[in-house]
């Protein structure tokens, strides 16, 4: 059919016959644009074919939880944890599960050591590991739900639930960072209050007294400062921080190796997440050792505060990206540039042909939904191009884009026919 946009006619394609049902049982009365997705062909519906269900999200979550916990889809051997650990072919799942197991061990060890050895920095690092652990479970659940096939109510699939999971992880990180930072500041002010009593009168003594006096008006901090006893830091806490540095650096290296071999940006991001954890553990290690060497300096709570800043920065960064996906922000500049490069190659090949089929590509849009990428574009073609030739050209465009970006789920191409005169004008340029 021909669709008019801005006064110009635009060809739009469909591969299904009118009235044909798809796998979801929805009947298509075709006024669609043609698009290709990883789940097969998808078709946009006309005004008369709309799905308006108020309880879609709640029902999808209920069904998703039920299927995740009890269905054969979840229990299938191809996604069984044991099989993932044993199977060399699924190295991505295997390395992710190894990281999950490592986080369980590190969270427990550093948490107990930080509590019993009175190390704020190690306790803060354990909080970071705990947020990673909780995040791993959220990611595993949202990943399973997001991989469900499209339905009549969710014709574009469930990939956005992965973004929802990412948002939850970011909020966990931010909440943990604020709690750890507040606790570290409380300990720091308590230490400063004790230090002020040992200092001679002077500007430094006055400044510390003023700070602690203001802090005492805050109930939670004031109660800490009011304690008349302190707990000595056990220098053996440094061993746990050192073990965390070594373990996380090892996880970074083996995860990055698999990510490079599999060309997986998701695994690569996870690898650098392990590296950031190693850095935060290194901060905790330096703080603990510094407090042992210079016991009069409050290095341990300062280290705990610095770790909280690292976690907060990471959480805000993740939340910013997730918010962009939830609000359909454009994909990153590097992504759009790679799409443009792939299309420019097609244009060059077409212009070199005696009878070019692709004259111009514009209005390129791309957005991320979870791990998937959706692309829309307008392609100008000769008005004499047949439907069969247009379909072949569309397949060529889709193939070129997926060659450039493996995560592309769907490409929606709108064809704009150009008259012969316009075609020659394009070729001259």
TrEMBL record:
Residue ranges of domain Cation efflux protein cytoplasmic in the record: 358-414
Membrane topology: Multi-pass membrane protein
Ranges of residues in domain Cation efflux protein transmembrane: 97-326
Gene Ontology cellular-component terms listed: membrane
Coiled-coil regions, chain positions: none
Main location: membrane
Region (Disordered) residue spans: 1-54
Transmembrane segments: 163-182, 278-296, 302-323
Subcellular location: Membrane
GO molecular function, one term: monoatomic cation transmembrane transporter activity
Bias-annotated ranges (Basic and acidic residues): 18-32, 44-54
UniProt entry keywords in alphabetical sequence: Membrane, Transmembrane, Transmembrane helix, Transport
Highest taxon above the source species: Eukaryota
Statement: the UniProt record of this protein carries the keyword Transmembrane helix: yes
SUPFAM superfamilies: Cation efflux protein cytoplasmic domain-like (SSF160240), Cation efflux protein transmembrane domain-like (SSF161111)
GO terms (BP aspect): inorganic ion homeostasis; intracellular monoatomic cation homeostasis
Name of the protein in its database record: Uncharacterized protein
Organism: Bondarzewia mesenterica
């Amino acid at each position: 059919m021909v669709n008019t946009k801005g006064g110009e006619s635009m060809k739009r394609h469909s591969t299904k016959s009118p009235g044909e049902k798809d796998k979801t049982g929805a009947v298509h009365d075709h006024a669609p644009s043609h698009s290709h997705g990883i789940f097969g062909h998808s078709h946009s519906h006309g005004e008369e074919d709309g799905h308006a269900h108020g309880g879609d999200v709640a029902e999808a979550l209920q069904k998703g939880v039920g299927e995740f916990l009890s269905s054969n889809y979840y229990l299938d051997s191809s996604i069984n944890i044991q099989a993932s650990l044993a199977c060399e072919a699924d190295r991505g799942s295997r390395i992710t599960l190894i990281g999950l197991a490592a986080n369980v061990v590190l969270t427990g060890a550093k948490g107990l050591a930080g509590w019993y050895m009175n190390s704020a920095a190690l306790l803060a690092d354990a909080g970071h590991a705990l947020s990673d652990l909780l995040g791993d479970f959220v990611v595993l659940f949202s990943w399973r739900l997001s991989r469900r096939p499209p339905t009549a109510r969710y014709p574009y699939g469930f990939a956005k639930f992965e973004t929802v999971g990412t948002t939850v992880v970011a909020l966990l990180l931010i909440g943990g960072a604020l709690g750890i930072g507040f606790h570290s500041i409380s300990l720091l002010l308590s230490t400063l209050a004790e230090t002020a009593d040992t200092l001679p009168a002077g500007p430094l003594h006055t400044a510390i007294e003023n700070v602690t006096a203001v802090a005492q008006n805050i109930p939670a901090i004031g109660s800490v400062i009011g304690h008349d006893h302190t707990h000595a830091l056990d220098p053996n806490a440094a061993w746990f921080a050192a073990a965390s540095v070594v373990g996380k650096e090892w996880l970074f290296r083996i995860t990055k190796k698999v990510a490079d071999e599999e060309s997986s940006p998701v695994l690569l991001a996870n690898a650098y997440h392990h590296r950031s954890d190693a850095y935060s553990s290194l901060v905790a290690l330096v703080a603990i050792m510094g407090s042992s060497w210079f016991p009069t300096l409050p290095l341990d709570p300062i280290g705990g505060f610095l770790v909280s800043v690292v976690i907060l920065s990471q959480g805000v960064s993740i939340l910013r990206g997730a918010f962009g996906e939830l609000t359909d922000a454009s994909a990153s500049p590097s992504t759009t540039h790679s799409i443009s490069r792939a299309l420019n190659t097609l244009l060059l090949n077409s212009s070199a042909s005696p009878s070019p089929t692709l004259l111009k590509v514009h209005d390129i849009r791309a957005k991320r939904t979870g791990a998937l990428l959706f692309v829309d574009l307008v392609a100008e073609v000769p008005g004499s191009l047949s439907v069969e030739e247009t379909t072949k050209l569309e397949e060529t465009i889709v193939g070129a884009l997926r060659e450039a970006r493996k995560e592309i789920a769907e490409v929606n191409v709108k064809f704009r026919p150009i008259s012969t005169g316009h075609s020659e004008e394009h070729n001259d340029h």
